[in-house]
Amino acid sequence: MTEYTLITGATSGIGRALAVEFAKRGNNLIIASRNLPKMRAAQKELQAKYSIKVIPVVSDLSQPTAPQKLYNYCHKNKLTVSVLVNNSGFGLKANLQVEQDLAECERLFQVNLHAVLQLSMLFGRAMKKRRRGYILNVASTAAFQPMPYAALYGASKAFVLALSEALHIELQDYGVGVTALCPGLTDTNFFQNGKPTVPGWLYKLVTPELAARRAVKALYQKKIYIIPYFQHWLIAQFSRFGTRKTIARIMRRLEKMRKKIRIL
Ligand SMILES: NC(=O)c1ccc[n+]([C@@H]2O[C@H](COP(=O)([O-])OP(=O)(O)OC[C@H]3O[C@@H](n4cnc5c(N)ncnc54)[C@H](OP(=O)(O)O)[C@@H]3O)[C@@H](O)[C@H]2O)c1
């Protein structure tokens, strides 16, 4: 029986780096995203370099039926998913939540929350039955405190972190490891409005390769969560101190600096 690692959004950034990291370990891959040409290019490269099998599946996770279809595809083709990586995700363009486009908010809801929940349930159930498997859900350091100027994105990642931590405990007695990957600022296509402008001494932009390497190690060590870079971990700990309002104000400052926001 051939086993696979299913990665959503493996066409760029952290997902692409995770695909390489699993490929290095000899894992066969199913990669799922909207962009078939990019997936074909990744398939060609990874198969040639690491002698593994890579299956691309076109899936737009902003469609409510997409997670079930992805599961059905694997089931129908007898592809056993022993590692699930919920990586696909994106942020919104406007700064103030009240000015976001509602249709975009709903798309974010589907991709960042609904797809993560549904895929974790569908594949997690099968893993529980087999009494083994791994789930890596990509949250963010944005999950640790409210995020003024990235409100819905931060809330979506808080959902992913809380869900993953609870699943970690629920599934540990069934041999299934669940880990939340919480990267800080990482150098990917994520920043549609230009690279963050926070000075390096305050907040370093790390490479997706570093995040992926440390994430996969943490997954196989069955850690409950991982913040791949020490400086980012340290900043995330601030939310344990101070009142909720103080923490929200500090985050507002950081986000204003990151996005060069001026209040008119
Ligand atoms: N970069 C950071 O600083 C940072 C920090 C913390 C957490 N994260 C999280 O890390 C994850 C990966 O982001 P990234 O930084 O690597 O950004 P990225 O380079 O923009 O990658 C995003 C990936 O998500 C996929 N995706 C987006 N919308 C999708 C949809 N509707 N259906 C299926 N796949 C979709 C994209 O694939 P296609 O376009 O091919 O569909 C792409 O492969 C996200 O969950 C993000 O929230 C990033």
Approximate helicity band: 40-55%
- How many domains, in number, for the residues? 1
Annotation, overall tally of beta strands: 7
Q: The CATH topology, please?
A: Rossmann fold
Distance between the termini: 61 Å
* Secondary-structure arrangement, i.e. CATH architecture: 3-Layer(aba) Sandwich
Structural class: alpha/beta
Radius of gyration: 18 Å
Short description:
With 264 residues, this protein is α/β, with parallel strands linked by helices. It contains 8 helices and 7 strands; from the N terminus they run E-H-E-H-E-H-E-H-E-H-E-H-E-H-H.
Properties at a glance:
alpha/beta, Rossmann fold, seven-stranded parallel beta sheet, 14% strand, binds NADP nicotinamide-adenine-dinucleotide phosphate, 264 residues
Please characterize this protein's 3D structure.
The protein is α/β, with parallel strands linked by helices. The chain has a single domain (3-259), classed as Rossmann fold (3-Layer(aba) Sandwich). The chain has helices at 13-24, 36-50, 66-76, 102-130, 151-172, 208-220, 230-237, 244-259; strands at 3-8, 28-33, 54-58, 80-86, 133-138, 176-181, 225-226. It has a seven-stranded parallel beta sheet with strand order 3-2-1-4-5-6-7, with helices on both faces. Helix 1 (13-24) crosses helix 6 (208-220), helix 3 packs parallel to helix 4 and helix 4 runs parallel beside helix 5. It is globular. It starts with a strand and ends in a 5-residue tail after the last helix. Bound molecules: NADP nicotinamide-adenine-dinucleotide phosphate.
